[in-house]
Amino acid sequence: MTTTRRVAFGFGGNYRFALMHSRPLKNYLWGTWKVRCPNKHDDTVTQATAQHECEKCHQQVFKDGKVTVVCPNGHPNEVPLNGKKESVICQNGGCKLECRRDK
Q1: Which of 95, 63, 103 is nearest to 76 (CA)?
Q2: Whose CA is closest to 100, among 52, 25, 21, 28?
Q3: Does the pLDDT of residue 15 top 90, yes or no?
Q4: Per-residue confidence (pLDDT) for residue 7, from 0 to 100
Q5: How far is it, in rounded angstroms, from Cα 37 to Cα 39?
Q6: Mind listing the pLDDT tens digit for each residue in 55-102?
Q7: What is the 3-state secondary structure (H, E, C) of 9-25?
């Protein structure tokens, strides 16, 4: 059997993809959240999320170790990511609602 460059590259590409996605996440949101991009568009993210590109403007939502999560009342809360983030209580105007949406 003759191996073409396309086949060899395809196998190599899949191997690199598997390596990229097998590393454990260090700083991430766990659960269902509404996140806000720098251009003030809101998206919903689920499960373990460490990176997210805005669906409207394609800006990265997670930047410089921080992410803006939005409470059910629409208040933005910029939070640092240091490990697995499972809960954020809104700090705007005495709101005090949980920002995570699946709790």
Answers
A1: 95
A2: 28
A3: no
A4: 43
A5: 5
A6: 999 999 999 999 999 999 999 999 999 899 999 999 998 999 999 999
A7: HHHHHHHHHHHHCCCCC
Residue given tokens 């509404």 in the structure block: 34
Gap between the Cα atoms of 94 and 15, Å rounded: 49
C-alpha dist (Å) from residue 86 to 39, 56, 71: 25, 26, 14
Pairing mode of beta strands 84-85, 28-30: parallel
Task: State the sign of the Cα–Cα–Cα–Cα dihedral 92, 94, 96, 91.
Answer: positive
Secondary structure (DSSP) of 58-95: --BSSBTTEEEEE-TT--EEEEE--SEE---B--STT-
Q: Compare 25 and 90 and report the one with higher pLDDT.
A: 90
Task: Delimit the domains of the chain by residue range.
Answer: 25-103
Report the range of poorest mean pLDDT among 22-31, 36-45, 50-59: 22-31
